[in-house]
Design brief:
The complex is a heterodimer. Chain A has helices at 2-8, 22-42, 51-56, 65-73, 77-83, 85-106, 119-142, and strands at residues 10-13, 111-114. Chain A is mainly α. Chain A has one domain (21-142). The N and C termini of chain A lie far apart (44 Å). Chain B is mostly helical. Chain B has two domains: 3-83, no CATH class; 132-301, no CATH class. Chain B is 60% helix and 5% strand. Chain B is built from ten helices and four strands, in the order ββαββααααααααα. In chain B, strand 3 (34-36) and strand 4 (44-45) form a beta hairpin. Classes of the chains: A mainly alpha, B mainly alpha. At the A-B interface, helix 2 and helix 3 of A face strand 2, helix 6, helix 9 and helix 10 of B.
Chain lengths: 144, 307
Amino acid sequence: MRMLSRNFGLFVRPLAPKETDFEFLFLVVSSGLAASCFLWLNLGMPWPGCWVRRLTGLPCPTCGATRCAMAFAHGDLVGAWRHNPLIFVCYGGTLLVNLYAAAVLLFRLPRLRLANLPSKVKRALGALAIIALTANWIYLLAHR
Amino acid sequence: MKIWINRAGQNLGTFTVEEVQRGLNQGQYVPTDLGWQEGMESWKPLAEFAGLQMPLHQGQPAPLAPISPSSPEVPPPLAEATLATFDGAEDGPAWEKRKELGLIKGLTQTWKEVLFNPNASFPRMKTSGGFASPFLFNVTMVVIYAFFSLIYQLLLSGVFAAVAGSAHHTSSSMTGLSAGLPPLLNVGAMVVLIPLLVGFTFVTAGITHLCLALFKGTSKSYEATYRVICYSYSTLIFALVPCAGGLVSSIWWVVSTIIGLSKVHKTEGWRAAVAVLLPVFVCMGFFIAIYIAIIAAVVASVHHANA
């Protein structure tokens, strides 16, 4: 943990009095949104389509997000990955953060907090995000 | 070892013992500010830290002049908004000072404060002083959003018409006609929608305030809730980004409104979350019920016709 806090500014600390509870906020908003979208889609309610695909016939970087979510919700992880790998990673990440948030809220555990991310790490993360977005779009274009 | 400093629920950053000592001597921090460092089980006032010496003068913390960093690893100087945060200071957001700052600067600074630092900006938000300022902000945001939406729709309807025209080999006059009608309708719709959306903000604030009151989370008037809702409309700026912008905007609106309500009404996060999300779920349930009722009516009529 010392190594993590020294190199990445990652700390495990208690929540200060009156401090915003980000875990609670994340859990409520993401699970609320997921539950309402799932209900909406399962009832067969109208859902907006992608205008980029309609217009050009080519997928946008977020195309397949809905199908990915439905496959993910039904436990079809391979199918979800195929629809949009990057969105699949985002959904997986959200699920993990939600599990973490539920655990710390339930057991009143200390929270993970980033103090000051070194600029090297920030730059690396930015580059990684751009590479991931580009690679994902190439994948979607190749598998349309 | 770094010390985390927190004042009135707002994190001021992490600093070395020397920096905190300097901050205390310069009056940037007060002994009642809370501190935490690795190994501690809970936060405690800086006055109780063994390695720190309290200055003789004790009063309100000086709002500015950040501490100069002593090493490259030290975080950047604290923002004015962050350092100025303490209980009772209500002078924000920047839109309230637009006469001094200028309209554009007031607007952009408010976006920055609400979107990227809601924890610091909402506790400093004015909770009284009339509806005019938040109302004007709401109108400005809705007009900006409507303007860009209209441009997108005009562009899209033009392109769609052109694509449809070339695909079906229709005459150029027909293409022009089909491309010309929707823009007129779009402009008309926007003219009607702008006052509707602005008016709906009062209703949204009313429903949210009622829900918050139901869960005993209100400590300020309806005006404070209205102000939070209005300034949270800064998130409409995300909606200008095509594709996922609308979704990001909606999610961030929910998040910033929850943070805003909890800070302004000084209530727990769950009460604020319920106040914001309950009306959303009720509306959604209502919409689904109407949809199911329509489907059921159609099925029943078909069944009746066949019988």
